[in-house]
């Protein structure tokens, strides 16, 4: 019985150690933290190392929003045989991604935890519009760095949401002048918004949005190296036009 208990303990320990845990950040936080942000296309995969479980991928940079040009990335996993429990990932020739990368020892590497959005193998009209909106966000962040110093972007959510769409996405007559909004908020001990200050707004239904944020939403506790219990944070709201007719998708998301 003792041997069986020990065996189960060891198995559970192995599972716990090998489990992949990713930390998912907001779009602005990913952009601010990355060394490189751009649209890349996978050209070929090769040079598999079975001991280290890595391989290489040559890429083409179709669009660069931040960083410097490079041609090769290291990929965690084996070609066509990735293990999700070890944060490994499959990439294939002709695949395209909007990706946020950081270099370590001057080497760019990706895993399943790397912030990225998979695009179609060929650009579409909808994709071009989506990327154009992302670029507007990136440009605003670059031009307003001083306004965000000492603060971190975090998420908010409707704690009482029972349907697929939050109250933010149910706002009628919403016609934004820009595809995103940013708010500076003060948070109380219950993770509710105590005070809200617009940094930049959608330019449509802004007072309704602020009221919903203050009365319905809870804020995920931001993490800070300098402050273990920050009481101020930034919220990023995005307009997802593609979800207007999607019964399950958020039209306005707080991420």
N-to-C CA distance: 49 Å
Query: What amount of the residues lies in strands?
Result: 25-35%
Side by side, the strands of the main sheet go 5-6-3-2-1-4-7
Report the biggest beta sheet as strand number plus sense, adding barrel if it closes.
7 strands, mixed
Low-confidence stretches: 1-17
Q: What is the H-and-E element order?
A: HHEEEEEEEHEEEEHEEE
Number of helices: 4
The number of distinct structural domains comes to 2
Mean pLDDT across residues: 89
Class based on secondary structure composition and strand pairing: alpha+beta
How many strand segments? 14
Overall geometric form:
globular
Helix content: 10-25%
Report Rg.
21 Å
Explain what the structure shows:
The protein is α+β, with helices and mostly antiparallel strands and 255 residues long. The protein folds into 2 domains: 97 residues, OB fold (Dihydrolipoamide Acetyltransferase, E2P) (Beta Barrel); 111 residues, no CATH class. It has 4 helices and 14 strands. Strand 2 and strand 3 form a beta hairpin. The radius of gyration is 21 Å and the shape is globular. The N terminus is likely disordered.
Keywords for this entry:
255 residues, alpha+beta, OB fold (Dihydrolipoamide Acetyltransferase, E2P), 2 domains, seven-stranded mixed beta sheet, five-stranded mixed beta sheet, 4 helices, 14 strands, disordered N terminus
């Amino acid at each position: 019985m003792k041997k069986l208990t020990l065996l189960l303990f060891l198995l559970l320990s192995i599972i716990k150690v090998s489990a992949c845990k990713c930390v998912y950040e907001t779009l602005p936080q990913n952009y601010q933290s990355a060394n490189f942000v751009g649209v890349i296309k996978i050209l070929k995969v090769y040079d598999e190392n079975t001991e280290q479980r890595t391989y290489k991928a040559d890429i083409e940079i179709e669009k660069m929003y931040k960083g410097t040009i490079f041609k090769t990335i290291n990929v965690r996993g084996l070609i066509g045989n990735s293990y999700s429990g070890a944060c490994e990932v499959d990439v294939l020739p002709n695949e395209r991604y909007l990706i946020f990368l950081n270099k370590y020892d001057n080497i760019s590497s990706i895993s399943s935890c790397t912030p990225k959005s998979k695009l179609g193998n060929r650009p579409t009209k909808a994709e071009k519009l989506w990327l154009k909106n992302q670029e507007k966000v990136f440009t605003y962040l670059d031009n307003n760095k001083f306004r965000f110093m000492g603060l971190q972007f975090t998420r908010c959510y409707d704690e009482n949401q029972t349907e697929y769409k939050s109250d933010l996405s149910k706002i009628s007559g919403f016609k934004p002048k820009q595809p995103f909004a940013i708010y500076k908020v003060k948070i109380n001990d219950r993770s509710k918004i105590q005070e809200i200050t617009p940094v930049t707004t959608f330019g449509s239904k802004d007072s309704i949005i602020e009221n919903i944020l203050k009365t319905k939403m809870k804020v995920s506790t931001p993490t800070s190296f300098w402050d273990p219990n920050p009481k101020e944070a930034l919220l990023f709201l995005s307009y997802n036009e593609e979800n207007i007719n999607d019964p399950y998708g958020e039209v306005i998301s707080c991420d």
